[in-house]
Amino acid sequence: MEVVTGAMSTLLPLLGDLLKEEYNLQKSTKGEIKFLKAELESMEAALIKISEAPLDQPPNIQVKLWARDVKDLSYEIEDGIDKFRVHLECRQQKKPHSFMGFIHKSMDMLTKGKIRHKIGIDIKDIKSRIKEVSDRRERYKVDSVAPKPTGTSTDTLRQLALFKKAEELIGTKEKSLDIVKMLTEGDEVFKKHLKMVSIVGFGGLGKTTLANVVYEKLRGDFDCAAFVSVSLNPDMKKLFKCLLHQLDKGEYKNIMDESAWSETQLISEIRDFLRDKRYFILIDDIWDKSVWNNIRCALIENECGSRVIATTRILDVAKEVGGVYQLKPLSTSDSRQLFYQRIFGIGDKRPPIQLAEVSEKILGKCGGVPLAIITLASMLAGKKEHENTYTYWYKVYQSMGSGLENNPGLMDMRRILHVSYYDLPPNLKTCLLYLSLYPEDYNIETKELIWKWIGEGFIHEEQGKSLYEVGEDYIAELINKSLVQPMYINIANKASSVRVHDMVLDLITSLSNEENFLATLGGQQTRSLPSKIRRLSLQSSNEEDVQPMPTMSSLSHVRSLTVFSKDLSLLSALSGFLVLRALDLSGCEEVGNHHMKDICNLFHLRYLSLEGTSITEIPKEISNLRLLQLLVIRSTKMKKFPSTFVQLGQLVFIDMGNREVSRLLLKSMSTLPSLSSLAIGIGELREEDLQILGSMPSLHDLSIDVGYWERGRDKRLVIDSGSPFRSLTRFSIKGCGFIDFMFAQGTLQKLQILELSIFGKAIKDRFGDFQFGLENLSSLEHVYVDARGRGIIPSQEAELSGALEKELDINPNKPTLTVKVTPR
C-alpha cells in the first residue's frame, strides 16, 4: 500500500494505539487524535482513488502534488509517534530496587510527563497541517478524479504489433511453426475437437505479433475468423459485438450500433452463429480468468475442428485457457540480427569496432525483448552518422534501467509494461517497486526478500496465514503476472530466488523516482538525490562516475538502507539516520565490531541483517533496539551474545543459518515471547535441544541444520509431549547427519509442512527399517523429502518411498509427498 498511500496503512493503527490507557494521554489530546484518524482515513481513500485513475486520464499536477504532500505528512506523523514510543520504551527499563532506583523512578515520572506534554503539542501542530491539506483537497477538486474504469482501456501501441514489417519478425518464424504444430497435430478424431493455445509472457516479448502471424497464416483454412483485443478493463458487450462483426461483416454490419442486446443475448447469438462452422478466433491480451471464462461461454464445442489462440501476461489465465506456450526472449544471435537490421538496414552488418562492445552491453540489457531492441535501435538509427559516437551510445546504455531516459521510444515501452503495474493491487505495487533497490541481474533470495517486506511493514496478516505465507503468495503473484522471473525452483515447487528483467527494472526505477519511493546511490543512477530520502540503496559504481552525496538533512528521513557497495564511507554517518527502520549490510565484509556501537543506537530498527559481515560479537547495547523484529546473522563469525539479548521482546524472526548456537543462547531465545520463525544450526542435536525448542510458545516456523545426532544412543529419538511444539506449522530439518527420530502421537498437532533430509542407507544400516511416525501428525498437508547419501541402491530408494507413502496413507489428513534423490 505504501507507494499508493504513504505510511497510512501502519500510521492509522498507531493512532488507534495512542488512545489506549497505557499511554495516559490528556483527554483533549485523545480527542484531537480521533479527529486526525478520521481525516487521515478519508485522505487514504482519496489516495487510493487517485492511484486507480485511468491510464489515459491521469490526475492533474495539482492533484499529484496534493497526494505527494499527504504521503509525506503521513511519514512525518508516523516518525513522530515512533519517537514518542521509543522515548517511553527507554524509560520503562527496570531500575534497581534502591534509593537510586527511587530517584530514577521519580525522574521518569517527570520525564514521561514532559514527553506526553510534547506529544500533545505535536498533535496540535499536526492538526493544523491536516486542516491545511484538507482545504487544498477541496480547492483542487481531488475527489473529482476519474474513477477506475470499467469500460475499455485502449492502447494504440498494441495495434502497431499487427503491422510489423516482415523483416522485424526475426525469430518469429520458428515460434510460429511451434504454435501451428500445437494447433494442428493429432489424429483425425482429435483434430475435430476444439483446440485452444495460450501464448504467455511479459509485455514487449511479441505475443500479439506472434499470434497475428499464426492467425494470418491459418485463417484462410476456416469458415470464419475473428481477432479481438480484450485489454485491462474490457467492455464485454462491445467485445462480443466486435466478435460478431468480424465473423460475418455482412450479417452483422450494424451490430456495433445495436444497444438493446444484453451480454447474455450476444453470447447466445455467437454460439448460434458458430454452431456448424469451423472457426478460428484470436483473443488478444486477456488479464483476468473471469473475463476469459465469460468469453469461453461463447466458444461452442461443435466437433468441426475449430481453433482458438489467446494471449496474456498472466500464467494463471494461460493455464485456464490451456495449451500453454511460454514465449521466451530472443536468442543472442537473433537479438543481434534484429538490432543491427534496424540500425543499418541489414542484419549481417556490424558496427565499427569502437561501438561493438557497447552495442553488446545494450543488447545485454534488452534481454532478448524485441520491443526493447527495436526501441533502442530506433533511437540510434535516428541519429546522423557523425552523432553515432561511443559517447552517445554509452550514454544510451547508461540510461537503460535508471528510469531517467525520456526518449519517446522508451516512454512507449514503459507504457506497455506500465499496464501490468497498473493492474496490481496497492500492496503488490509497493512490493514490486521495492525491487528497484537491487542492482540489475541480481539474484534475489525470496526468503530474504519476504522478511524485508515484513520488516518494512508492506505485508499485513490475512486470515489463516502467517505474514511469511502472505509474502510467498505475493512472490507467486508477481511471477504469475510475468513481472519477475523465477531463477531456482525448490523441492516444494516454489521460487527460492527471482530476478527482475532489465526492462521491468527500468520501469519500476522510473516509478520509484517519480513517487520518491526509493533512491539509488551508485550503479547507473546519476541523478541528483531528493531532499527527503525515504529508502536508500548504495550500489557499486565506476570510479570515474561522480556520485552525488546525500546531505545529513536528507539522511534524517531515511527509513531503509541497503548496502551493495564496498564503499562504506556513508556508514560513518549512521548516527544521522534518525528514523532508520531497516538496515541490510549483507555481504559487507568490511563491517566489523566497531560499527556495532552506532548500529545499537538506531532505536527505530525493525530489520537488521549482518549476514556475511566480519562482526564476531554483539554488544550488550543491542537491548536499545526495543522495536527490532527481524535479525539475520547467518554466515558470520559470531562468537558472543550478551545476556541483554533477551530484552528484544518484539523479535519475531532470527536467522542464524548454519551458525552453531550454544545451548545458553538457545535457552535465552526460548524466553522471547514473540519469536515465530527461527533458522539455526546445531552441531550435536540432543533431546534437551528439542525440548527447549518445543517449549517456545509462538514458534510457527523452524529450520534446523544438524551437524550430527546425539552420540551414544542406540535407539531412535522420539519427539513427544516433552517437546510439544504447540504452535509449529512448518518444520525443516536437514544436515550432515541422518534423521533418526520419530514423531509420537499427540505432538506437533498444528504442523502442516515438513521438510526432511533423509540418509536412507545410513538409517537402513543402523535400524534395519524406515519408521518416522508421520501418521501421527494430524494436521500434516505436505511432506518434502530430500533422500541423500552415497551408496543407496534403487531397492532401498523404493523401500524408503514405500515406507513414507504407507505412513502418509494411514494419516487421516492424507498429506502429499514429494521425494527428490540427491546423491552425495
From TrEMBL:
Residue span(s) of domain Disease resistance protein winged helix: 437-508
SUPFAM superfamilies noted in UniProt: L domain-like, P-loop containing nucleoside triphosphate hydrolases
Record-annotated NB-ARC domain positions: 191-341
Similarity comment text for this entry: Belongs to the disease resistance NB-LRR family.
Organism: Triticum aestivum (Wheat)
Example GO biological process: innate immune response-activating signaling pathway
Keywords: Coiled coil, Leucine-rich repeat, Nucleotide-binding, Plant defense, Repeat
Any coiled-coil regions, as ranges: 26-53
InterPro entries in alphabetical order: Apaf_helical, Disease_R_plants, LRR_dom_sf, LRR_R13L4/SHOC2-like, NB-ARC, P-loop_NTPase, RX-like_CC, Rx_N
Domain Disease resistance R13L4/SHOC-2-like LRR: residue ranges: 557-669
Pfam families: LRR_14 (PF23598), NB-ARC (PF00931), Rx_N (PF18052), WHD_DRP (PF23559)
Lineage, broadest ranks: Eukaryota, Viridiplantae, Streptophyta, Embryophyta, Tracheophyta
Gene encoding the protein: Yr10
GO molecular function: ADP binding
The protein, known as: STRIPE RUST resistance protein Yr10
Disease resistance N-terminal domain segment(s): 7-98
